[in-house]
Amino acid sequence: MSADPRRTEPDTEPGREPGREDLADDVSVVRGMKAAYALAWRACPGMLLLQAAMAVIGGTAPVAIAWLTKVALDELAAPDPRPGSLVWMAAGIGALGIAMAATSAVTAYAQGRARRAIGLHAQDRLFAAVNRLSGLARLEEPRFHDRLRLAQQSAEHAPDQLVQMGLSTLQGTLGIAGFLGTLLAISPVMAGAALVAAVPAMVAHLALSRRRAGLVWRTSPGMRRKLFYQMLLTDLQAAKEVRLFGLGDFLHGRMLTELRASNTAEDRLERGVVRVQVSLAALGALLSAGGLLWAVRAAAAGTISIGDVSVFIASLAGLQSGLGVLVQGIALGHQSALVFHHYLTVAGVRDDLVGPSPDRELAPLAHAIELRDVWFRYDENSPWILRGLNLTIPHGSSVAVVGLNGAGKSTLVKLLCRFYDPQRGSVLWDGVDIRDVPVAELRRRIGAVFQDYMDYDLTAAENIGLGDLEAIDDMDRVRAAAESAGVHETVERLPAGYRTMLSRLFHAGDEEEDEEEDGEEAARTSGVHLSGGQWQRLALARGLMRQGRDLMILDEPSSGLDAVAERAVHDRLRELRAGSTSVLVSHRLSAVRRADRIVVVQDGRILESGDHASLTASPDGVYARLFHTQAEGYREDPDPSAGATGPGPGGTGPVPTAVGAG
Ligand SMILES: Nc1ncnc2c1ncn2[C@@H]1O[C@H](COP(=O)(O)OP(=O)(O)OP(=O)(O)O)[C@@H](O)[C@H]1O
């Protein structure tokens, strides 16, 4: 058996697991910055330019104020001060002060607009990428979820932080250049000392930012577990078990354990930050004190003027704080760029299914769907689930799939929908390998009800209409599907019929808040909760919105229905399936007995195949045993001591005990 050359290989670049070395990769910092700026520019060029203009004003105005102050002080100290010039200088200082105040208000506004626009753009790209994944494999990787969580966070903050870092670098550099020039004119030694003092600060902050980014990645799994425990504590679906089994304290404890672990790691890092910052502050204070001492002595000796002292002090303080802001900004940007790397990885993720040329069409099914020598396992460390399975589903026939729990029935269904590709062998649609057509083309032709169906917190009509988005507003179709699934009367009886919101979490009609609420509206907004079986019938109706597609898949469509409903639903389904191609997976053998063909899956292969009569005719067969065991369960047992392991049909040995559970 040779490996299929088209088998899906895990991609290396986008899905590659990041170790510390990834985070330490400075190329990713540069790439992250470039990508963040490109993204920000696409999202809101106007606001970026406005912020840049404000940064130029913000960077140059303080230097100009310091110089004007010096000139004014020198004028004041002159033997014959000119009041006219002094007024102009004071007016200039005042005007610059107003400009700086206005700058910060305009910058705050432009920042807000840019942050929202960038966030929208980044989230749009991120979820478009997640939506591009047409299989399920990637979504089953815990690492992918770690990365996705960080990507979501950095989509919200990182591009904006990087833009702010760029702008503050621009502003800081202008201010630093101005103050540095001033200092150089008065004391080159002091200027050099201030610059040299900034070097260890830069190195220390960059090291810290790298450690912070590493910490964010390492604590991500723990943070996701914490979110999981939090979700369980608040989730309505989990609430029953959590309360009955008294799981609240247990989950609460686990949540706190995760949180404490992350806090401990953060505390450790923050202690390092404090050490660095205290050392840097001491260095800065020493420098300032030395500078002040020098300036006072020089002024006393008459080598510099009183105005020089003023501009010197302002310049030294401005240079130090400018360098500090610059260094911290660069470090924050560095950290954001490192985390943004996760965003870029997810935003650039490749489809987890190997795709064909996207314009190829899939013709309506005319002959058969065939699974040919299909080998499948969920990942390379797991056991094979399907081991050379062969199955033909002829056009227009109903095929039922039965087997014990874990036999691989749902897996088979998932391969038919191409949620995964088999590692070996192929699934053929009228002889065409389904990997050779766009996956959307294939799924357009399939209707399905899954065993683990969804309950959507939407209206009843939407819950059904989602099965065929093009017809979601077509109430006749929605109603017809509900009738076929036997849920029409239930929905009609809801307070607002098909418009009833089926949710206790959200309420509809926010947009109509101001209108007076009548009874129907109140029901829509307060929401209604359905029973398990009613939800399942809605899911069935959703699947039946696709009635008439080439293949209908029903994976345990009636497991939650009462006996009467189940009978009615299966009778109706049988009518609907007549003449169309369908696959029914069910443990209820009464439901499968009328299928054109029944196949028994065991050990990853088709063990038995035939119609009900032929399969029950061989009493040692697995199907016959399953069927009779189930049937026995409904019969009056004349001898209670006979138990469930009594002789099977035809007096054969014990029957499998896991029958019927699903
Ligand atoms: N997403 C998954 N990742 C890894 N293993 C999986 C996944 N889904 C199913 N499996 C494994 O594959 C095997 C077959 O599962 P499958 O759901 O196909 O069985 P089934 O025949 O439908 O069972 P049941 O009757 O209980 O519904 C099981 O052992 C299960 O643990």
UniProtKB/TrEMBL annotation:
Segments of skewed composition (Acidic residues): 510-520
Cell location: Cell membrane
Assigned keywords, A-Z: ATP-binding, Membrane, Nucleotide-binding, Transmembrane, Transmembrane helix
Cited Pfam families: ABC_tran
Major localization class: membrane
Region (Disordered): 1-23, 509-529, 633-662
Domain ABC transporter: 369-628
A molecular function GO annotation: ATP binding
Domain ABC transmembrane type-1 residue range list: 52-335
Membrane-crossing segments per the record: 48-68, 88-110, 278-296
Record's bilayer topology term: Multi-pass membrane protein
Tree of life domain: Bacteria
ATP-binding recorded as keyword: yes
Name by which UniProt lists this protein: ABC transporter ATP-binding protein
Organism lineage string: Bacteria, Bacillati, Actinomycetota, Actinomycetes, Kitasatosporales
